[in-house]
Structure formats: C-alpha cells, structure tokens
Task: structure prediction
Amino acid sequence: MSFLLVLAAPPDELEILASDLFDLGATGVELQEPGQLLMPGTPALPAGLGRCIAHFAERETALAAAADLRRSEVVPVELPEQDWSIAWRAHHRPLRMGPRVWVHPPWDVPAIGPREVRVAIDPGMAFGTGSHPTTALCLERLDELLLLRPSSDVLDIGTGSGILAIGAALLGAGRVVATENDPVALEVARRGALLNGLAKGRIEFLLSQPDHVPGAPFGIVVANILLNTLVELAPRIATRVAPSGRLVLSGLLADQGDEAEDAYRASGLRIVGRKQREEWIRVEMERPA
Result:
C-alpha cells in the first residue's frame, strides 16, 4: 500500500509546497495547476487554487508531513501501489509545443520527425513538467525564435525543472545558461539535462542572480516566473539582453502584462508582442539595436 496527501494551495506556492513535501519524505509529487487538463474523473480544482498530490510509502510519514505543514486536517488516502502508479502515469502524456518540440514523460516516448526534438521531463521531480500554459507559451516561442535566429545564446532565468534550457540546447542554441536561486531546483534541472542525453557542461547551471552571469549579453532571454519577481529583477534581467535581443516573459496573468511591460520599458526595452493562453499571457520585448 501507499498513501497520498492531497493539498490545495495558491498556484505560486505549489512548487515550494512540493519541495517541502519531498523534504518531509514524499517519494513523488504531482502538481495540478489552474488551467491544466486533468484526467477524466479527477475532481475540479478549487477556485483560484492548485493541488499537490504527494505519495508516501508509510501512513505515519504522511501524517507527520501533514502535521509539519500545519495541515493536520488532511487525512492520508490509502491506495494500492499498482493503482497509484497507473493513475499517476496515465495523467502525463506527450505534448506538442511549438514547431519542433515534444515534451514527454520518460516512459512514453513519442515518434518524431527529422527536424523535431523530444524533451523528457520526469513529473515525479516536480518543479514544472511543461503542462502549465506559461511553460508551453515560453517553450513555443523559444522554438520559434531559434528557427528565426539559429545558434542564438539563451539565458533561462528561474529554470525550475530546466525544461526551457534543455529545449534550447536540443534545438541548437549556442551558449545556454540556466539560473536558479534554489539549489534543489538546480539539481533537478541538472538531472533533467542528463536524462535528455546532454553532455555535462552543455548547459551552464548557475546558482546566481541574472546580472551575475558572466560573459556577453544573450540573444534570447526567457523568464517564466511570477510578476513581483519579474518586476523586482527587471533592471538586472534587462542588462542580460543583447542589442536586438529578445526577452520572453511569462508566469503572468492576463491583467499583469502592462505592469511587466512598464518595468522593462524603464530599463530600455520595447514591447514587440503578446500572446494569451487561457488566463495566462506571454510578453515579448526587445532591446533596440
């Protein structure tokens, strides 16, 4: 038998909660985010909230985790191990994102065409699997930009699972750098790069603020993080965008685009496009030549 804790939380707290659950003994965590397509029969998410489903080998460990998180009212759900495995894996299928990219779990490898690439992401490691609209929007645009600007250097700020940096490397980007302020997330991203067959050093993983990244500015900078962090880091992120370079921002709700744009206009960039998917948007900006 195994035991599940099902915890609701605001979308911007899900990855932190997942990390805490791993620290408290979870052997796997599934994130369900607002706007995500759920398995048939899955209860709808509470309004404005997402859900963490954490898998524990022992009931006592699950109870202790709930108590440590001050969620003692949450009762572990007993589940046969085989049923959990089937249900958990069935939720994760290959997804097409952009002109050339497929994102897939390691156990379900899609057939691809000669110009396409596969990005394998292990959902059990949390930190973003590619199913959220903001990740899809960023990866889609990264693919399009690397078609228009092959071999561009790419900086991925707040890399999480590493999905965007890994995608950039597989799509033929030049130098690829991925930054994080969370060493656990950075280690997950490193493991993700190895899972995808990338040589050690193909992506530079840095526990660093964006303005501390060494070397020249980047032709493409992508940041899929929350509005308050994007605004706070705007001067630092903007310095990393090369002349004529593009900055792709997401993690933004539709009504947050203007505030994000204003922060980066103040740092010398200009707006070149937006795209919305469900209630989320992507903002694209450029540094004039």
Notes: Residues 26 and 56 are 5 Å apart (CA to CA). The longest helix spans residues 133-148.
